[in-house]
């Protein structure tokens, strides 16, 4: 807490004992006290529960947002040793992952895609590139559930994920954590906060991590730096400049093929290979997933008299990715994805795996600017909380491909391996591949929105919002003849769109401890969300979606514990399909599907010593309502349950302070069975699973704390990320011990 606030508190205590003379009586003028920062409900490092969010354009009370939000604070991230953003999302209800063709994970929420990475944000601005995001600079991660295009523009069908960066504070406080664990895991993080002036501070966050295996077959080798300087804190004009750098040189486990239980039973669902250890790796030792993220952000807050606030951010981002992966398949596999000559009855150590080649080499450059105004006023006898803003963005992506031998390059042959020889050390020189430009995508976009929260009567508030987005996307693809030399063919596509998004809500807040809401919101997805077009998609309008939700947020009498409940229905009303009548010129927006279910979040302290976090989704309804007539088992048909929509998913985590020195905890993660996307269940299906985690923490003194985490205690094998042709196993048993020094 800032010094000014402490002085005010101390003065208040003194006045309570002996009322001071008034200024008139003493003949003196009291000095002015300026509060630099406002004390908030404990969050971040201090608690699992928080009452505010940054995801709704500016800092807002969670109870004033008529939509479900799950907030994972730094305390929970540290308690569970969650090193990546994917780990964090895995520890919430309703989120699943698709293991896509390029190795990147497509996040699904409420059964709908978060538009690749288009719905992942960093401090409220789109964070569009594919890279393995680390948590070393995260104060919290916020998950907004349901349609959110009114706030963020294109995408946001299932929701949005916002990473909140650590910000400089007016205090000298430092923390260094060293972690050692299974598979030669070594991680060091440093969080250094320096108060450099009366209203200025500098914060540095550093990270270095290495491991032979992340528990599911991928090595880790990464480092990061985040630096931010903030001045004018709490004054009329506040500024911040921040730099972020993350360098990944990790391994990549592309996954394992699905297997049929019995070759003679065509009705049996393909499933995972349950006899393998989660850490088993069958790719090449030369496979890797290298990536770099660099951003520069400049921010300004202008505070007007009366409480209005204008926040402006400008960000330049550069992202590079070089992924070389091996697609593992059974030797002699059938052409149908996921099918194979092998089955569980004949699978054994001698079963042969082939290693295919998958590359994903790309550069992404972004330039973004946004400005948001929030103000409160009274008009026509009603209180208004108005927000409005504008954002602009330019995104460029260049993709590269390898030349074949006939095109003047080198075709590398990868040797086969067997199920009984994981980590065989086979290696090829990927650096000999000759690359050439393959694709280029450029998008210019802007959006403007207006939202008003009106208190129409005591305890009742109405929310209305409207946004317009414009996007101009251009895509070029270069093709080299199979036998070089020869002319390079260039194919170009362009799409311009303009779309409106809506959001309405009703809030009933009978007490300070309860808030009930009903909301309706829309979203849209463009054909360019994957940074590419083809002859059909460039001529196809955006898909449209809507979300309806009824929910409640309830606090305990002491405001230490909160519960969130929601009933939802999410619908994509015109999903893209390939139809025989239009296949030559455009896709047909004839598809329709919906999901419906209930969510529960529980977070906070049940007693001063007992802290709990729980997030659960029950989704009994997930149905394809309309589909193209050409749909097969490799695509959804009417009546099918779409893939990546388990009926049950969630997590629970609990800690208890046994003594002033000892704290213990444990938790469960679970998902019921699910199929990959675009597959008719039960043709492929990953079994449901439950994993258990444990924690023991000992406070040595005011400076040092030692903590041990044991995750996936039973070494459970399960399918974490799913695709039609393969699945990526989740991490097996991991033991990690961390020593933290605070000074």
Explain what this protein looks like in three dimensions.
The protein has 743 residues and is mainly β. It has two domains: 1-35, no CATH class; 52-742, Beta Barrel (Maltoporin, Chain A), CATH 2.40.170. The chain is 5% helix and 52% strand. The strands form five sheets. It has a 22-stranded antiparallel beta barrel. The chain has a six-stranded mixed beta sheet with strand order 6-5-4-36-37-16, with no helix packed on it. A hairpin with a 6-residue loop joins strand 1 (52-53) and strand 2 (60-61). The longest helix has 15 residues, at 3-17. It is globular.
Mean pLDDT: 88
Helical residue percent band: under 10%
Main beta sheet: 22 strands, antiparallel, barrel
Radius of gyration: 27 Å
Per DSSP E runs of 2 or more residues, the count of β-strands stands at 38
State the separation between the terminal residues, measured CA to CA: 16 Å
Number of alpha- plus pi-helical segments: 5
Spans of at least 5 consecutive residues whose pLDDT stays below 50 are 1-43, 334-339, 579-586
CATH homolog superfamily of the largest domain = TonB-dependent receptor, beta-barrel domain
Shape: globular
Structural class: mainly beta
Strand proportion: over 45%
* CATH architectural grouping of the largest domain: Beta Barrel
* Annotated CATH topology of the largest domain: Maltoporin, Chain A
Domain count: the total is 2
**What is the CATH level 1 assignment of the largest domain?**
Mainly Beta
């Amino acid at each position: 807490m800032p010094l000014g606030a402490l002085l005010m508190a101390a003065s208040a205590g003194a006045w309570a004992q002996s009322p001071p003379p008034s200024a008139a009586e003493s003949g003196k003028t009291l000095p002015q006290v300026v509060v630099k920062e406002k004390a908030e409900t404990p969050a971040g490092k201090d608690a699992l529960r928080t009452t505010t969010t940054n995801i709704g354009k500016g800092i807002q009370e969670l109870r004033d947002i008529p939509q479900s939000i799950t907030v994972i604070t730094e305390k929970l991230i540290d308690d569970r040793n969650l090193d990546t953003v994917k780990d964090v999302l895995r520890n919430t209800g309703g989120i699943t992952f698709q293991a896509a063709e390029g190795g990147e994970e497509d996040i699904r929420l409420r059964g709908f895609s978060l538009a690749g990475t288009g719905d992942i944000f960093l401090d409220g601005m789109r964070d569009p590139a594919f890279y393995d995001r680390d948590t070393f600079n995260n104060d919290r991660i916020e998950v907004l559930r349901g349609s959110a295009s009114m706030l963020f523009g294109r995408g946001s069908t299932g929701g949005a994920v916002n990473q909140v960066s650590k910000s400089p504070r007016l205090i000298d406080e430092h923390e260094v954590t060293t972690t050692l664990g299974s598979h030669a895991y070594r991680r060091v993080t440093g969080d250094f906060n320096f108060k450099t002036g009366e209203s200025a501070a500098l914060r540095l966050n550093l990270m270095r991590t290495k491991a032979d295996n992340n528990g599911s077959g991928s090595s880790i080798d990464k480092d990061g730096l985040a630096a931010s300087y903030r001045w004018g804190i709490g004054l009329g004009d506040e500024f911040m400049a921040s730099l972020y750098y993350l360098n990944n040189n990790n391994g990549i486990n592309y996954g394992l093929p699905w297997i049929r239980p019995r070759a003679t039973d065509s009705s049996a669902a393909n499933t995972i290979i349950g006899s393998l250890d989660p850490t088993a790796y069958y790719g090449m030792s030369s496979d890797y997933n290298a990536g770099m993220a660099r951003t520069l952000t400049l921010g300004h807050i202008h505070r007007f008299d009366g409480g209005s606030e204008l926040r402006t951010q400008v960000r330049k981002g550069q992202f590079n990715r070089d992924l070389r992966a091996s697609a593992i398949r059974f030797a002699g596999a059938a052409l149908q994805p996921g099918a194979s000559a092998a089955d569980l009855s004949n699978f054994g150590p001698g079963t042969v795996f082939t290693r295919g080649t998958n590359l994903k080499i790309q550069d992404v450059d972004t330039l973004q600017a946004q400005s948001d105004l929030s103000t409160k006023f009274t008009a026509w006898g009603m209180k208004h909380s108005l927000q409005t803003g504008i954002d602009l963005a330019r995104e460029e992506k260049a993709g590269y491909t390898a030349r074949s031998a006939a095109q003047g390059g080198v075709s590398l042959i990868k040797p086969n391996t067997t199920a009984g020889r994981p980590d065989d050390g086979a290696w090829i020189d990927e650096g000999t591949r000759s690359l050439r430009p393959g694709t280029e995508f450029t998008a210019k976009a802007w959006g403007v929105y207006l939202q008003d929260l009106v208190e129409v009567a005591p305890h009742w508030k109405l929310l209305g919002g409207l946004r317009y987005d414009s996007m101009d996307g251009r895509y070029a693809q270069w093709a080299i003849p199979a036998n070089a030399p020869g002319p390079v063919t260039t194919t170009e596509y362009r799409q311009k769109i303009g779309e409106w998004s809506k959001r309405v809500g009703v809030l009933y807040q009978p007490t300070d401890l309860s808030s009930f809401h009903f909301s309706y919101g829309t979203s849209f997805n463009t054909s360019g969300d994957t940074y590419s077009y083809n002859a059909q998609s460039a001529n196809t309008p955006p898909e449209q979606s809507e979300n309806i939700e009824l929910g409640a947020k309830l606090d305990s009498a002491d405001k230490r514990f909160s519960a969130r409940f929601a009933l939802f229905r999410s619908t994509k009303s015109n999903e893209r399909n390939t139809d025989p009548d239009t296949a030559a010129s455009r896709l047909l927006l004839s598809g329709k599907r919906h999901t419906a279910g209930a969510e529960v979040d529980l977070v906070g302290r049940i007693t001063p010593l007992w802290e709990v976090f729980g997030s659960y989704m029950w989704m009994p309804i997930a149905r394809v309502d309309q589909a193209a007539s050409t749909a097969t088992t490799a695509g959804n048909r009417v009546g099918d349950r779409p893939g990546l929509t388990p009926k049950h998913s969630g997590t629970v985590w609990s800690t208890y302070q046994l003594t002033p020195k000892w704290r213990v905890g444990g938790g469960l993660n679970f998902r019921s069975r699910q199929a990959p996307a675009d597959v008719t269940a039960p043709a492929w299906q990953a079994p449901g699973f439950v994993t258990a985690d444990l924690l023991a923490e000992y406070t040595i003194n005011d400076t040092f704390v030692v903590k041990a985490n044991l995750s996936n205690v039973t070494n459970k094998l399960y399918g974490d990320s799913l695709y039609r042709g393969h699945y990526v196993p989740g991490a097996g048993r991991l033991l990690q011990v961390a020593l933290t020094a605070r000074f």
